[in-house]
């Protein structure tokens, strides 16, 4: 049964224990973690987070992988995860800064920096090493890319890994998820929030002004008699489309830019809700004529939705298609990501758009062939933009950015670089004929595989010393520190947002989940609210929050490193003053070193698990300096 033992614990004759061993352990950790993630504990699912804890358990019992393999798979999984997130939220990233979005993002930014301040206070008050505190911070705010960015920043700075970052993360994460939900419940309790009242307020404030609506109007404005649709558009300067015209003699025709309107004509207009009343008054008078009545008058004209699936149309302007003049077909709406847009000749089409067209059946069939309308093409993955984007993201993440006062340049890293590039590509790619469309299922699959690989490797890398840390190195204190870092910023900002900004509780729950980039908290919010308002708030703040979490995790380590070097330089005169008088150029005396400095050297050398005890005063004895330690 030696082969069976080698599958789980590795074969020393092969690099990394063997390929079969590595694949088996990764697959088992991920499968068991996902299965456990479906269980509810106190009405809360931890989801894929269980993969981390299963990996810790496997590693604790000796089922480990080669450290270089773990590092590669972890980083590659992180890249896949953040890149797929960027593709999803990219189109809404810049629009989120419109009305309401700026306020939400400012509140989310406050939560991020309050958490960083709280973590640094913990570092100063307790003396915990900064790598441990950053790990606790990443776990407390449930941000795995921030964890990856911190690990990479420390590795770039010192040339070695810091396993206590992942250990701190793993210890603080469970109560981090619970702390977010408890903060939501506390805000609801302190303000006596009732959902029926929230729904009434939400209905009264709901803004449907940009939603596309369809109205029927009879032309009565004598000034417009004989003027074309294009001339009328220039006069009123509003977005609207006239799809059909019913003449006074009962003849129906498809309208185009050169179609003249006469007094007494009845027209079907598609416009936005905020422009509807103005367009009605300008043309004439609104009439009660539903879509079914239009279809009964002329069964030769039909309405159909066609999907843009030809890659050559990606980024093409509607005006370039010449659908009205060339085919007698009128485009009345463009549905993009569930939102209806009013088409105009300057609107660029994207892969996956659904356009509503009106015309004869033969003409619409011809237009369908031009636009594609093939689900099979959409289901085919566009891998080139994904991997080109990853290449650009890795390049961007590797560029050192110097900040005044910080000796080590800051990098966006393998988490921040691909995230920024994916946001930019998904938002502006179609403008440059770049096909960035991926189905929701494909994006979700890519994201879940990435986060599963990342969490599995984080757990396998941190599990060896996890139990020892919690039981014998005051790790239970870390849990308390993490809980404070979680709830204090949320409660402070939550009270301010509710009391002074009158933020709707549903949006506030989305703000909490998004500022912590926490999917389990978002799932709880959606289930509690029964609407999509938490998801809207989550998506609004998520991109900026993710970027700030990645950046601040690196900045915290680099700033602390700079302060440590500065304090050492200031102590140099004091050290020289305690040297024996006999010391000179030819007879240098040993340097008097403090306990913390020796402990730091030992930790860097890999001996942090054997803390220095009873450090004698005076010159450092030989046993306390490991051979080959970088001193």
The stretches of 5 or more residues where confidence is low (pLDDT under 50) are 574-598, 604-631
Structural class: alpha+beta
Oligomeric category: single chain
What is the helical fraction, as a range of percent?
Answer: 55-70%
Instruction: Please give the order of strands in the largest beta sheet.
Output: 5-4-6-3-7
Q: What is the percentage of strand-forming residues? A: 5-15%
The gyration radius over C-alpha positions equals 31 Å
Quantity of strands, as a count: 11
Report the mean per-residue pLDDT as an integer.
77
N-to-C terminal Cα separation, in Å?
48 Å
Give the biggest beta sheet.
5 strands, antiparallel
How many individual helices?
Answer: 25
Give your account of this protein's structure.
The structure is a single chain. Strand 1 (40-41) and strand 2 form a beta hairpin. The protein contains 25 helices and eleven strands. By secondary structure, it is of the alpha+beta class. Mean pLDDT is 77; it is low at 574-598 and 604-631. The chain has helices at residues 2-9, 19-37, 49-60, 67-93, 101-126, 130-140, 144-158, 163-190, 195-205, 229-236, 273-283, 291-297, 318-321, 323-327, 361-371, 375-379, 383-397, 413-428, 440-462, 466-472, 475-499, 505-515, 519-529, 533-577, 595-604, and strands spanning 40-41, 44-45, 212-219, 240-246, 252-254, 266-272, 284-287, 301-307, 330-336, 339-341, 354-360.
